[in-house]
Amino acid sequence: MPILTRDALLPTIKITQPGLWILFACFLFSSFRGIAYNVVSDSLISYTGKQLDEAREKRNTDLQGALRITTDLLKNQSVQKHDSLYNYVKYTHSLYLLLLNENIRSKEMIMEILPYYKQTSQRRWTILLVRLGSLNIRLGNYEEAQDYLNRALPLTQTLDLPISYGMIYLYLSDMHQLKSDYGNAYKMADSALQVFQTIGRDDWISTAQTSLAYICILVKNFEDAAVFLDRIFREAEDIENKNFLVRPLLYSGIMHFEQGNIPQARKQLEEGLEKTNSMGNYPDLTLIYQYISKICIMEKEYEKASNYINQALSYSNLSMNKKDLFDSKIILINLELITNPEKNNLAEAKEIYDWALENEDYVLLKESSEYLSEYHVRHKDYQNALKYKEVYANASEKKSEKERLDEILILREKNKFEHEAHERELNEKKLELQLVANQKIKNYMIISLCILLAMTGLLLYYFNQKRKANMSLHVTNQELHKAERTLAFKNAELQKYIESNIQLEQFAHVASHDLRAPLITINSFAKLLDETASGKLDENEKTFIHYIRANGEQMYELVNDLLEYSKINSQKINISQVDVQQLVENIISMLQNQADENNVSLKISTPLPVIYADEIKLKRVFQNLISNAIKFSDPTKDSFVEISGEEDMDNWTFSVKDNGIGIKTPKIDIFQPYVQLNRKSEYKGTGLGLSFCQKIIQQHDGKINYNSQFGQGSTFYFTISRQLTPDNR
């Protein structure tokens, strides 16, 4: 049997010297190729990283420039071959598309990379879910948006993504806003505020407060809106990225517009528009252009209004948001009704009407049905005119009811959080008392132990000290129990106050709603009857209809003033620095047309100071007093109204002087509600204006009074305490 050696088990391979050189060359080529690949890969990653850093720096100042950088990277063939780099560039590119309001393109790109990041990075996959939620809200796909945000919400907590967690609540708030569900919108925005306050992010805190301010503006709660906006502007220095301050500026402009302060509204909206355009496209551009176009229509700048509203239409078409689109179209229809009344906008108005009816948007439904009713009146189709007028009346009623319910829900949420904060404060005081008591017990034990060790020979003295310590401890415990009972009693009183306050607000809203709804219907049908049957009625019948309309409108004004009067005591005053000179100049500008009609000159006779007061309420006092002076001017003489101010140690004193008809019966308390010294047929009014003024001045720790001579004129003067500061209110 042959012997098997190791060499016998291996195949016989003969390698010549040239073969060895070939193998060595292959080895060197393979090694250099791997090194070259790693060098190229590292270089590509470094280049892409620098480009993305440059895009990130441009994002806040030149968003279009940032998008151009990521677009060029996506076209780079080397980047396309590098899977992780290519998907990350798409991840960044989709964000810039979202910020530019190119919602469809952004959504398509996110859907492309979503499966990749589901496999490779759960954090980025979660962030993409949040972005999809935001995009679908903008596109009106609320159910799809809710699904994405609900999937992302628990993951943002698990993965420690607090910014994304708070943003989900903001997006849910936006969704409820678009659906006109302002109560839940307020609740979601407040939840976002709690999240951002927990992590101490001033920029996102301002964003949540901005959303809360806008919701308050939408439900006409301008007092709370001003509080949120003032807080943002006071803390602006702490916000590094000043782009977070653009939206508060815009919403402040919208608030001034809704309050009738058109010059200030235009100034802030145009300033916000300039800053927004410097950042690139932005979702708020549609809203800004809508409001600026409304201002231009009011000021009869119709060509500018047309340019602005067409810009709004362009951006709303880009974002694919139907509500924004129809809000812009209804403004355009109203503009063309002025500039080109012969133009037929029936199809567009009917499209808006159908969408508003389906989506229960009572604001658009009210405006579109009013246009359709007036259109059919012009074309003598009274049956359809009546049909749409009924829809208009019903939409007005539904809108009022919705606003009432939203105000109540927001009030409940606000009171709930205030109540919880008060409870926390009470619990902290209780804990503080317990800690004090425990510290006393600890101190007495230490003292007793020291006495026991140091003075063992003085046993009687020790027992005496121990007895005193026990007596003091007993007194302390009694104080603690007394404090607990006091806190419990005050807590119960607070709960009763909150419940009664809510019930009072609800009663006022219900009463106003139940009175306003039938008045809207009466006034609408009286107007329609006046328009359609005027040629068929004799003079007596026309007079009757005139009385119905005049008294209906007066009753509607009285109900609105009564509601405001019932709310004024429950409203807190918001003390801030007020430039009274600027405030009165704005009021004079607003009332100049009324003054010119009555041949009255308005002037400020002394420089007016800068004081601390509630700007919105102080404006109402001056506006009421100056309007009254114009209304009761004497047409037989050159009438004037002079506004002046002075100061002493304790108060600011302001006066409004006129040379009008004066007051014939000065003994009557004209500051009581419903007191009217002249016939309603001669001077319109509800008799609540001076009562409003008195309550507002009392809230400022001041007094209001007047001097008057019949036929010579009147001087109304009031004081504002100089002790008012933002801290003591």
Give a verbal description of the structure:
- This protein is α+β, with helices and mostly antiparallel strands.
- 73% of the residues lie in helices and 6% in strands.
- It has 25 helices and 7 strands.
- The chain has helices at residues 6-9, 17-58, 63-75, 77-81, 83-99, 103-120, 122-138, 142-158, 162-178, 182-199, 202-218, 222-234, 246-258, 262-279, 285-298, 302-319, 322-339, 346-359, 362-378, 382-454, 459-533, 539-567, 580-597, 615-631, 689-699, and strands at residues 576-579, 600-604, 610-613, 639-647, 651-658, 704-709, 713-721.
- The strands form 2 sheets. Strands 2-4-5-7-6 form a 5-stranded mixed sheet.
- Strand 6 (704-709) and strand 7 (713-721) form a beta hairpin.
- The longest helix has 75 residues, at 459-533.
- It is globular and about 110 Å long.
- The model is unreliable at 1-16 and 31-40 (pLDDT under 50).
Brief overview:
With about 725 residues, the chain is of the alpha+beta class. The protein has helices spanning about 5-10, 15-60, 65-75, 75-80, 85-100, 105-120, 120-140, 140-160, 160-180, 180-200, 200-220, 220-235, 245-260, 260-280, 285-300, 300-320, 320-340, 345-360, 360-380, 380-455, 460-535, 540-565, 580-595, 615-630, 690-700, and strands spanning about 575-580, 600-605, 610-615, 640-645, 650-660, 705-710, 715-720. The strands form two sheets. Strands 2-4-5-7-6 form a five-stranded mixed β-sheet.
